[in-house]
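Course exercise 7: structure representation. Students receive a sequence record and must write out the corresponding structure in token form. The form below is the worked example handed out in class, using YeeE/YedE family protein (356 residues). Read each field label carefully; the graders check that inputs and outputs are placed in the correct fields and that the protein name is recorded exactly as given.

STUDENT ID: A-19
EXERCISE PROTEIN: YeeE/YedE family protein
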Amino acid sequence: MLISGLIVGMALGFVMQRGRFCVTGAFRDVWVTRNTRWLTAFLVVVAVQSVGVFALDAAGVITLASGPFPWLATIVGGFIFGFAIILAGGCATGTYYRAGEGLVGSWLALITYALFAAVMKTGPLSGFNTSMRSVTIEQSNFYSVLNVSPWVFVALLVAGVALAVRHHLNKPRFKMAAPPASKTGLAHLLFEKPWNAFATAVVIGLIAIAAWPLSWATGREAGLGITTPSSNAVNYLVTGDPELVDWGVLLVAGILLGSYIAAKGSGEFRIRVPDAATVVKSLSGGALMGIGAALAGGCTIGNAMVETAQFSFQGWTALVFMILGAGLGARLTIMNRRPSSGSGPAKVPARAAAHS
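STUDENT ANSWER:
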């Protein structure tokens, strides 16, 4: 059953690469261009997964559990992580799939992200991480505090996201000129035709739902997750302990493989070596990502996508502070480059504008 982790990861990496599903871009665009289209697409993933995860819980396929809310570590870690993804040019999952496209900068960010996640979780800084995450409050999710059914929150989330999607679909969009199709049928759809942001989000949400029972079947009682599997992969390379190679480790390996297949099939794979400044940003951004994700208890997947779908305080608090951290990162690295005069819109640097 462990092989299902690799399959789910390949599907996730393929879809995110072809859909150009960039969480960093979603958070950054809120501040730089005041555009919420990709943030809305991200919330579509959360809403779709929320329906599925509570249905699985109600059916007894999985059992959702809650624990104390480590509020201090979540706030600090979420903010650090949000800032870091702007430096690194991608969040945890984005870094994995951009690495599969051949971006050397993403390879570097991925290495330091996984390394520092391990340092925080099981290495020299594990005591600090544990101490920070021991500052808690008992309440862990919204519906238990209000003593209502979680389906009330599911309905509100789905309705709110549906209205936001409708708003974006009703806005006029510019059609970009595209070269004539060179593929036909399924190959054209999978590797050539641009994917709609909201359709991509629905598919990712369905993959996230499927991850729950498949992961549980192997004894890993969780859904999608990137930080702990990345830490486990580093620890496996150091210790050789085969127990560390679980469903999650195969998941992240699958993301790399799936994104490579997608990039190769669409002609988007090529080795791209960054300049020195980008190398420094990638390494430092990756390190801060590992630190922030470990403190917060998850990255944009484990916290902002999976925990939010369960309406946990940790997930939604992390999401808010990740967006705030990304805002600071964007202001320091992107928005300060705006021209001091003139009424024209600011241009986002090419590297920052590219979905990662």
